[in-house]
Amino acid sequence: MRLCLDDGRQSAHGRPAVAEAQARGRHRPQGVGQGLTLTRQPESAIYRRGKKPRPRENRMRRVLLISLAAVVAFFGFGSNGIAQTVKVGAVVPLTGRYAALGGQVKTGYEIAVQQINAAGGVTVGGKKLQIEMTMLDDESDPTKTVARLETFATQGVVAYLGGAGSDLHAAAASIGDKNKIPYLGIAFALHSIHKQGLRYLFSPFPKSPDLTNETFVFLDALIPAAHRPRKVALFLERTDWGKEMGGLWESAAKKHAYQIAASGEYAPGSKDFSDLILKAKSAGAEAVLALPSPPDGMTIVKQMKELDFNAKVNMFIRAADPPVWSQNLSKDGDYVLLTPGWHFAAGYPKVAELNEAHQKLFNRPSDPLVGPSYACLQILADAVTRAKTLDRDKLRDAIAATKMTTVVGPVQFRSDGTGEVKVFVLQWLKGKQELVWPKEFATAPFGYPAPAFSQR
Asked: Computed from CA positions of residues 239, 244, 245, 250, in that sequence, does the dihedral angle turn out positive or negative?
């Protein structure tokens, strides 16, 4: 007997999530428990030895067999005790303040799963298995991030995939160690998460020390010394990440002979940034370095224009990552720098295939966070193949030993789980995200100095 349980969210046509999204024009997380199959042994097997059981014993044995089969199927194994799929649980912010970022992460995960499975899946001990990914929305709420991960822990996943936003990852990171499930996460730069001695956390994404140092390496490399924006203003979100980035930017600025002319904090979700802006303007700041969420970043730019504050360099890490930045700000959003971890022009293997898939779905090349999220699945598939097993401890060790080239370039992990990866600097120019650093992949020259808002 085969009993199939489905929560009702499976596509009526059995199409993958990416194809279904294209048909419907929107994305939706796959339901938990889709395609769950429970298998019971034939009744004749009960009577092979000994006396025929009494009716009550017969019923009890039937219940036991069904229960055991259910547990085996639930954790991704067939009736022979061998895994049928590689079960992965992804928790991503599809709604809430990080929805724009989470949408990119979701797309990267889904395209990667589709392409890996289409190529035959993942080899585990000589057998090809498909990746079975279930995705849940945490609504940009750290409490729900943790709850969703704990739900997956009961479902036998062999790995977690994280979402976007340092505070969400900060809440989630320890869950991997608690449940001994490897956690791969991108779209967060908070370095302090990796200082907690967590063994199951891995992030192939630039961290705060990488970003803050590369900020000034980039400026020094592309701007002659006499024309560099020496006076810098810091607009810092009042969060752990804001504090971390502020301290590191100050240290890096001093090392590269820049001056912090103004620095201030704001609460996430603030509506009035005029105090920060006017202080920076009064101090003669030539560059603004900030790390707001997309909604906060767009509000800051609008108020900078209103208050006639025109910096030569504006770096808005995170805020300028999604396409909605240019859609909402138009020309006012141009000349802003971002460091999202990747650009579709990076000349690495599989980038062309990824861009082609993204183009078919959205009529544009891949968005910045699509690359790093795709890379997470490349790393996981490679680790499973090398581990030759779905044992989560051995899989963790295989991920730690990663040394491969992904769509974001060469990746290997330090002992604290941070990735040794390249830092990409992009800039919005004429409504497009152009790659301006590193120079070998640049799609456009660095737009400097940024013209005044009134002259665009």
From this structure: positive
pLDDT in tens, 270-313: 999 999 999 999 999 999 999 999 999 999 999 999 999 999 99
Extended beta strands in 118-210, E state: 122-124, 127-137, 159-161, 183-184, 201-202
Asked if 167 and 142 touch (Cβ cutoff 8 Å), the reply is yes
Specify the residue for token string 């505070």: 167
> Which one is predicted more confidently, 389 or 57?
389
Domain ranges (residues) in the chain = 2-74, 85-206+346-412, 209-338+424-455
**pTM for the model:** 0.79
For residue 58, what pLDDT is reported? 53
Which CATH number applies to 85-206+346-412?
Answer: 3.40.50.2300
Asked if residue 430 lies in contact with residue 335, where contact means CB atoms within 8 angstroms, the answer is no
Chain position carrying tokens 């092979």 = 48
E strands within 223-376?
231-237, 259-266, 287-290, 313-316, 336-338
What pLDDT shows up at residue 60? 52
Class of 209-338+424-455 in CATH = alpha beta
Among the listed residues 160, 104, 112, 134, the one whose alpha carbon sits nearest the alpha carbon of residue 378: 112
- Alpha-helix residue ranges (DSSP H) falling in 223-320: 240-255, 274-282, 294-306
Query: Do 331 and 429 form a contact (C-beta atoms < 8 A)?
Result: no
Q: How far apart are CA 160 and CA 253, in angstroms?
A: 37
Q: Does pLDDT of 151 surpass 90?
A: yes
Long-range contact list for 433-437, CB < 8 A, 24+ apart? 433/338, 433/343, 433/368, 435/343, 435/345, 435/346, 436/222, 436/337, 437/214, 437/218, 437/221, 437/222
Instruction: Give 8-56 pLDDT, tens digit per residue.
Output: 333 333 334 444 444 444 444 343 333 333 332 333 232 233 344 455 5
